[in-house]
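User: Show me a protein chain along with its predicted structure.
Assistant: Here is one chain, sequence first, then structure tokens.
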Amino acid sequence: MRKILAAVLSMMLLASLIVLPAAAESAVTLDTIKLGFIHVSDPSDMGYTYNHDLGTKAMQKELGLRDDQIVNKYNIPETDECADAVQELIDDGCNIIFGTSFGFENYLLAAAKENPDVQFCHATGYQAAGAGLANFHNYFGKIFQARYLSGIVAGMKSLEIKNNVLGYVTAMPFAECISGFTSFYLGAKSVNPDVTMKVMYTNSWNDPTKEAQVAKALIDAGAGILSQHADSTATATTCEANGVFHVGYNSDMTSVAPNASLTSAVWDWSKYLIYAVNTYLAGEPIATDWAGDLASGMCNISTINEAIAAPGTDAAVEAARAKIVSGELKIFAGPLTGNGKAFDGSDVSIDLKAGEVYLDGKDESGVVSAPSWNFIIPGVEVIGE
């Protein structure tokens, strides 16, 4: 009897020493999850970061998160300061870290390798597919679809004002930017076959002074309507001050340029944020690459400024939208030729025949999130930096 009692007591002692798995004690819930965001500027740019911030707030409202569950790092340059910001967010206990600028990717990727328990989601990048990491992801969207629609708005206005020269203020000679201005131009050309476009780079994502200078140079070169792939509203206000028209990016810019800004190609980043958080909380893998589109609401154009838009613009836009959503209209469709540079700097070219289609990002289903069209097509002229 004593032996049996001793055995029972020994088993009870061993049971008391068993430690439950850490995951069982610290499972992340909607109430405990913490999210970190790294931005290259801040919401005062009224463009890129402002729009990302709107997406964060929409996600927060949708999911019912508290303010203390979201940590924003603003005005982080694409330098080693990004690595410091990432580490601060990790130390602060963030479960998912979102980096929203192209130049953040290498820093997030390095951190992902060292911190397998933290999820890293990078907007506009392209390296996740080749990284082979379960905790590193790229997300973007088919903004070229919205750019095409905004191009139609510009093309209709160019017919009305009888000026066939468009201008485009863009940041970098990267596929993200080239894909955008090409689709904008193709949209304009779909309603005005005689339109041409001059492009200038600022070599910065957010430099209001340079953006204003480039915008003025394009106006002086004869452009009657300007669009942009730059973070601030400087292009819009320069157009307003010089009596020409404007198509914006990231946010509706009519408030700062009511007599110039026709519409903007815009994002709803909350679509991805809600997806990523819900997927993580469900214990499921976040997609390596993710790309929303017009149909999902990830990409769109802002309300057309009817006070200055050309008659018939809304009908032309909605007809094209229906064809894009149905799949009838592909943006990069032949006959179409172009020349450009690959990521490694080598010369590349394309020659699409009638009936052939280039599906930007390899697959319009979103298998690869980053844009890949980097060809300058006839009718588009890069005139300087």
